[in-house]
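Okay, is this right?
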Amino acid sequence: MDPIIKAKLEKITTATITTVLLKKGLRNVWMRGPQPFTISAMGQRMVGPAFTLRFVPAREDLATPESWSSPISTRAAIEAMPEGCICVADAMGVSDAGIFGDILCARMVKRGVTALVTDGAVRDVAGVEGTGMPVWCAGGAAPPSVAALTFVSWQEPIGCGGVAVFPDDVVVVDDDGAVLIPKALVEYVANEGTEQERLEAWIVSQVEAGEKLPGLYPPNAENKARYEADKAAADAEKPAKKKKK
């Protein structure tokens, strides 16, 4: 990712991103199921391009322990993950089998994967926690993935938590869950989201000063003009402060 765009997105909440995308007509971008699960995920905001994994219902001749050694396996997929990606796994919302455990998560950490996001579950919970891998998922489960799922592919379009995810779309995760930004809208969201966060910070300052909400949130024409004036004044002060330093 462009480091400037990435840095902007790291300062924008998933809540704000959903609002910005709603203005573009995109309503279904928040994944149902994935929530901060490991301590390393809680209180964090992370950004990265999606690396997709797809599971289908278990079929007895395919979903076996022997399949873990197949060229089409989660093990092989992990070796294809680039540094900085966010692994997004479509587990169809199945939460009674863990798609990844501590060993797989440890390898993902070594490969520099930013986070794991799934609408399913993980297993070996204490071990996963110990790897430091930030995980957003629907919970923990003792059985292995093959007890309920068959792994079939990676880097294909998937549905995770009811959201269509294409490889290299951008995923942002924080305490509110996981949000998908279509690749073509990433720069727009970064810029619009930055402005939205600034506006809302100003609104909060007005609320703290005793202002009433009607006409303030959302701002009417008068309050928009006040905001723009305050923003211009703040921007004008920045060069002056830099010169003093």
